[in-house]
Hints:
Strand order of the largest sheet: 1-3-2
Number of helices: 21
Distance between the termini: 66 Å
Structural class: mainly alpha
Number of strands: 3
Mean pLDDT: 90
Oligomer: single chain
Order of helices and strands: HHHHHHHHHHHHHHHHHEHHHHEE
Amino acid sequence: MFLNIKCFFAKYKIPLFAGFFTALFAHLFVLVNILHNYDNVAVLPSGYGTGIASGRWFLTILGDFIGKVWGNYNISLFNGLITIGILLLVACLILDLFHVDNVWIGAIWTSVFLCFPTVTSTLFFIYTAPYYALAIAMAVMAVWVTERFPHGHFLSMFLQACSLGIYQAYFPMTATLFVLLLISKILEEDSSLKVIIKNGVSYLGCLAGGMLTYFGLLKVSLWYYGKELHDYQGVDSMGKLDLQEFPALLTKTFLQFLKMPIKNYYGVTSTNILKFAVIFLGIFSVCAILFLLIINKYKWPIYMGTIGLCLIFPLAVNSIQIMCPKSYIYTLMIYAAVFIYFLPLILIEKLWKTKSKIAHQLFYSGGGICNIVKIVYGIILFSYIWLSNGNYTAMYYMNRQTENYLTMVITRVQETEHFNESFQWIFIGNNFSDPNFKYSWSAYTPYLYGGNTTSLINAYSRNSFIRNFQGYFIPLADAETVEEIKKMDFIKTMPCYPSDGSIKIYEDLIVIKIEELE
């Protein structure tokens, strides 16, 4: 076992180093700074986020256990390095799964995997990022064990259930890897359509078994903890799919994938240069597949099977749309899209290993196509590193602006006549309507990833920011009192903050009107 691990690290040492240094360039800012989004600011100094009530049964078990033996502390450097370390190993595990031996292909893959937009979005939620990385690892291992162990399907189902039990959005990664395996196998010289179909049915059964295992363990966990699923983002309706809507959902899923080079796909193609890169790699992949089919002189069933798998690939990559048809989908949830960059690398590896002289002359000679592909990947890496740092910088300024603004609000309240620190506070409205406070970065940075935020002064984040970041514990009135005050006549005549008279002492309450009520 030790020798196998030692050989693994020896084999992939260059991809590991390449991925690590790329990750440092992309994510050093978040590792050495304290950055908060709407959730991270609420989980200080410790916590792991929403567990079983969101269907994340294994996150609750892991989080509670780690909390007892170590502590779920929100420490950026510590959590970030653990996350990067796990993802590096996962990237190399994928290389091992597909028997990728070419060093530069491995280095490109680990680098792309570590600077992909989903990793940046994950680190926005750095308080729980190591758990999410573990879920990603289990989603990938679920495929790896099916190929490495005789009866690995049963272990695969359990790993899928655990991955789903931490965060449900990584299931498409497992599905996409299975499809990529089928594409890789059908393009081998001695491939058989009968074997491919057999493997495909086996993989499909494994995916179905993993999902069923997840729901079974979730039910047991809900019973054990005495909890119910909440209705946020349709969590309580997971697994319920309207069959009449299914064809339209499949069409939407497929077309959204095809529009990736035209319309920004959750940050993946947020700049024109990335759109052009995706188009180039797409064309290259089609040409490489056709070339492999021709030089291996396959019969028509293999052609048809290959076309079928290539049509299934977009559905697998974008299957988060099928899983969450009524939910808000954002950058954190689309890690399966990283495999659009892995497919061309698999094809290059196959062309590299083929015995065809034409292939080597066309793709690997001094001015070969693969050299152009390397340049394109270099541009992609540079773009994602730049975008990651841009997102972190924008979040930094948003945090500073929020801190400054809320400090002014607190100071204004404290300077109000007859102020008393024991009085309870009431905010009338959800968002500050101050026309002079604007987050300028959102106007000039169209590349903000999902999970980044343009406001922390809203009702969702405001009180957590004041309490955890500024250290001022506001005594807030209960919901019943707030509703009673809202109905009073003097509220209608009060101006909104920051105008004079927007802060009023009423009996033993401090009323701050921040926006007009509808």
